[in-house]
Amino acid sequence: xxxxxxxxxxxxxxxxxxxxxxxxxxxxxxxxxxxxxxxxxxxxxxxxxxxxxxxxxxxxxxxxxxxxxxxxxxxxxxxxxxxxxxxxxxxxxxxxxxxxxxxxxxxxxxxxxxxxxxxxxxxxxxxxxxxxxxxxxxxxxxxxxxxxxxxxxxxxxxxxxxxxxxxxxxxxxxxxxxxxxxxxxxxxxxxxxxxxxxxxxxxxxxxxxxxxxxxxxxxxxxxxxxxxxxxxxxxxxxxxxxxxxxxxxxxxxxxxxxxxxxxxxxxxxxxxxxxxxxxxxxxxxxxxxxxxxxxxxxxxxxxxxxxxxxxxxxxxxxxxxxxxxxxxxxxxxxxxxxxxxxxxxxxxxxxxxxxxxxxxxxxxxxxxxxxxxxxxxxxxxxxxxxxxxxxxxxxxxxxxxxxxxxxxxxxxxxxxxxxxxxxxxxxxxxxxxxxxxxxxxxxxxxxxxxxxxxxxxxxxxxxxxxxxxxxxxxxxxxxxxxxxxxxxxxxxxxxxxxxxxxxxxxxxxxxxxxxxxxxxxxxxxxxxxxxxxxxxxxxxxxxxxxxxxxxxxxxxxxxxxxxxxxxxxxxxxxxxxxxxxxxxxxxxxxxxxxxxxxxxxxxxxxxxxxxxxxx
Amino acid sequence: xxxxxxxxxxxxxxxxxxxxxxxxxxxxxxxxxxxxxxxxxxxxxxxxxxxxxxxxxxxxxxxxxxxxxxxxxxxxxxxxxxxxxxxxxxxxxxxxxxxxxxxxxxxxxxxxxxxxxxxxxxxxxxxxxxxxxxxxxxxxxxxxxxxxxxxxxxxxxxxxxxxxxxxxxxxx
Lengths: 615, 172
Prior knowledge:
The complex is a heterodimer of chains A (615) and B (172).
Chain A: E1 6-11, E2 16-21, H1 24-30, H2 33-44, E3 57-62, E4 76-81, E5 88-93, H3 97-103, E6 108-112, E7 119-124, E8 127-132, H4 141-151, E9 158-161, H5 164-167, E10 175-177, E11 181-183, H6 188-194, E12 197-203, H7 213-229, H8 231-240, H9 245-251, H10 273-276, E13 288-292, E14 302-305, E15 324-325, H11 329-335, H12 344-357, H13 361-376, H14 395-405, H15 412-415, H16 419-425, E16 434-435, E17 438-439, H17 449-457, H18 470-473, H19 489-506, H20 518-528, H21 535-556, H22 567-571, H23 586-597, H24 607-612
Parallel strand pairs in A: 1-6, 7-12
Antiparallel strand pairs in A: 1-2, 3-4, 3-6, 4-5, 7-8, 9-10, 9-12, 10-11, 13-14, 14-15, 16-17
Chain B: E1 3-7, H1 17-27, E2 38-42, E3 47-51, H2 60-64, E4 70-72, E5 78-80, H3 90-94, E6 101-103, E7 108-110, H4 120-124, E8 130-134, H5 140-149, H6 151-155
């Protein structure tokens, strides 16, 4: 148990919907969510398919611990071939949607083909149907959420939907659930839009059972105690959110600034967690209203913010005067430090719009940042930006950009391409801070060397959530390593990648790993699920998943050449801070990484490795 | 000593651990829809509020029940007896707070019974938003918060200071 044992398969082309049993043999080898859904994708989808064509599939997947009392047991992932990267994509979200899908009785929903007209998938327990979405097509996430609940007269429904960005082909469109939690990265929302599906709406009244309830209560209670007593998960994250990192990463000289020209931002404090919790001089109110937990989460790192009603971004726009999802560190960095903007209220507004229109704030912010550099170099003119004075530091320009991007209007259409395509179009591909076409997040690979290898080898393109070596290099979790050297990083990155793939596949949140190791997680999985789930087995499952994802990308045409970083990080030394004078030592790490992975010098898993892992 | 659930919504993060604990205790499975306690998310106001039965002394659910299926136990708890309940739902209409609800899969109504004196929701709440306390002291923590904000709390120097000698007395 843990799993419901059921998969909902929806053929959008024919409008047929079937229930089928979950492949329990695969579940033993890939656990759930990211791993298990990737297995389905790899078996069913041609790696060379057009990600936005009908041959691609999109899978909503829960884990065996989703919808239980395990702390953070509410996650789901969306797995598909991504349009931003053409690589395998897996984007993870919290909120309440994942647990609701599980309560409705489904481990996974597989969407295939393409609907002839806009629809939404309504799932009420065992009953699922495709319903006409013409009235919400062309409208925002917030509108679609409200419309669906009102139409079904059920405020307890949970909705995962795209905004206009996903309909308009913005290549980094998100799927947003519960208004402000998102499967944000890699353009999974673009794929949903390409299938003419606006949303999934779910109501579940079935229960989730676990194998041994008594052992499960014991294991999950022990786990919660560890989270509560840990400084990061028990205090830092609930109080400050992920934004606890803004000042710390800046001081470490690892905060990419102005498209990574610099590694420290003079305005970091203005957009930090501390600033969010300090009364504003304008109206005496705090930006931060409260913290919020996702389903079953005892950490509660989410931020709920309210914008100053007199701020220029929301004057005469009362629809943005209420509280909603506030800035997380990645968003604050991408749209703030990375663009040289230190206006907290403006960033909160832009974040609201990203949620409302369904944009990934990391890729959006990083794309604007690249555009700002092109503009500053004269490669993009004011005529081409449609009159936007796209200078670093301009909150006005950023606000204008976000308003245009989801709608794909004017210069917004160019921004919707993402930074790699935009920079190539304007003749400077080197200015795109991306790997495999995906914008990298808030850690500079010169100041935190492990993150360079993390970005270069991530199967979904540059990403911090595939192996968060920041934990070790900055925070000493599970043990301290020196962020400025490359020594030992290949093995460290591999260990983080494998463990994270296992955690993602369980239905738990990766943030638990600030406090938990697989020794804390495996007993929870073991008490919930059939099979013998030791920490060793979890790690092996993680390694299997990593190699399977890698093989998908290999078949899609990726080679070792794509395990690379932008030339700026390899050639231009950090100008300040502890990493001053350093470039990324990727060339020193990559060959060793291939070795510890059991891959050839060309980065291809050897047949021995694949057979050892039964991939 | 009578005890009751005391809910301090200001501490609630919306995690729904209470709903999970309640449904496991009462249904043997994790099922938010069958939880006797519910957390409401007032998103635009940044508030989360857990809500459940307050075990009224004069319980309208009990008075409305035509088959006397709801009794009061030694802890003052209003308990539904499944063997007597006929699923008529009159109690769900009578309850002014909506905390008695019909369970379609059993044909009976469900409501909070304080888990026989060890409420699982209070045990599971990670932030102290739900506590199980002596009913006669349930408001004392809130009283203390308000007391610290009243003017005499800030200016009162001790029992020997003559009344009226302080500039900003409360006047009562």
